[in-house]
Amino acid sequence: MPVHQVVLIAGDGIGPEVAAATRRVLEKADAPIQWEEHRAGLSALEKGMTVLPESTLDAIIQRGVALKGPCTTPVGGGFTSVNVGLRKRLNLYAAVRPVRSMPGVPTRFEGVDLVIIRENTEGLYSGVENELTQGVVMSMKVATEAACSRIAHWAFRYATQRKRRKITVFHKANIMKITDGLFLRCARREHQRDYPNIEYEELIIDAGCMKMVQNPGQFDMLLLENLYGDVVSDLCAGLVGGLGVVPGANIGDQQAVFEAVHGSAPDIAGKGVANPLALIMSAVMMLNHLADTRDDNACRAAAGKIKAAYDQALADGCKTRDLGGEMGTESFADAVIDRLKG
User: Fold this and answer.
1) 108-239 classified as CATH 3.40.718.10
2) Residue 120 burial (CB < 10 Å; 0-12/13-18/19+)?
3) Catalytic one among 58, 177, 206, 271?
4) Domain ranges within the chain, ordered by starting residue
5) Which one of the listed residues 125, 158, 228, 310 is annotated catalytic?
């Protein structure tokens, strides 16, 4: 059985704790993974390295796959985002955020089952900002036909492979007629030319968000440019219990980085109370990616076992404090491990 070399970036704050719990779950599920540990974020700076060391990037390029815990990003100053750096340097243009209702996690809505696809390299997150004169600053929204077409193609191909029924594009092309207009034209062209089997609709983002919180069941897959995708993916996480119960992935043509999308929570770091579920779920996404791209049934089997185990653990009332329970990081991992079958 082949063993896959995977880069592990534990991250900052609670990252090392949830990463250790995730490693233990994958080991007990017989996932064919060998970890190669590297640093990024504050943990790298504290060792005299840059926030995103070249050695970490080189390892991801060589191995092709990484699992990343949360990394701290200062607000309004300080060093740049590790996540943005990874996406730009590795051209991880597709951000994928599956969001579904979880057993034993009651929320206002039931049966939520969404996938948010976000263009990951352009828009306002291109970071093109200037001070025109004192007290006047400008941020440029960048859109290229190549990137807009690429993410549209990726989303429709994903929808076909995963048997999703509909893609909805959220946009603001009524105001940003050129940039968002280009995004829409590329999505329409991809749909009409290659994927007419997938239902397609467009919604102005403010109306789309209103409809989402009224009835998320009317949506299946969302396709958005960078900033909208960042905001809406967190909004959708709120429909099912928050960022502690959703995984995330950043995928390019050559590399893929799977990550917990919540913060590093330094206020609870080292206390053993952090919820490892989001990183465990992201590891399941990683295993399925390896199964798809490297034709490895052992990865798919491990992913299925782990998913069934954490679903059952939640249904049985095994929850950490953020979900209203009393379990800690390791005891929740134990609960998942106890329910592994097969």
Assistant:
1) yes
2) buried
3) 206
4) 1-105+241-342, 108-239
5) 125
Residues with Cβ within 8 Å of residue 32, at least 6 apart in sequence: 1, 2, 3, 4, 296, 298, 299, 302
Predicted local distance difference test score (pLDDT) of residue 76? 47
Annotated catalytic residue within 141, 166, 172, 211: 172
Within 8 A by CB and 6+ apart from 56, the residues are: 7, 9, 38, 39, 40, 44
What's the pLDDT score for residue 313?
A: 98
Over 70: is that where the pLDDT of 73 sits?
Answer: no
Domain 1-105+241-342, what architecture?
3-Layer(aba) Sandwich (3.40)
Residues 100-125: what's their mean pLDDT? 96
Q: Which of 180, 195, 200, 230 is flagged as catalytic? A: 230
d(CA 15, CA 274) in angstroms, rounded, equals 9
Question: 223, 127, 125, 141: which is closest to 177 by C-alpha?
Answer: 141
Distance separating alpha carbons of residues 154 and 254, to the nearest angstrom: 14
141 catalytic residue (yes or no):
no
Handedness of CA 160, 232, 74, 43 (dihedral sign): negative
Q: Is 125 a catalytic residue?
A: yes
Q: Based on the residue annotation, tell me whether 172 is a catalytic residue of this protein.
A: yes
Q: Is there a shared CATH topology between the 1-105+241-342 domain and the 108-239 domain?
A: yes
Q: What is the pLDDT of residues 236-284, one digit of tens each?
A: 999 999 999 999 999 999 999 999 999 999 999 999 999 999 999 999 9
| Distance of alpha carbon 88 from alpha carbon 121, whole angstroms | 6
What pLDDT is attached to residue 74? 55
132-174 pLDDT, tens digit each: 999 999 999 999 999 999 999 999 999 999 999 999 999 999 9
Is 230 one of the annotated active-site residues of the chain? yes
pLDDT at 42 over 70: yes
The single residue listed with the structure tokens 């390299």 is 121
- Beta strand extents in the chain (DSSP E only): 4-9, 33-38, 65-68, 94-100, 113-119, 123-133, 136-142, 166-171, 199-204, 221-224, 247-251, 256-260
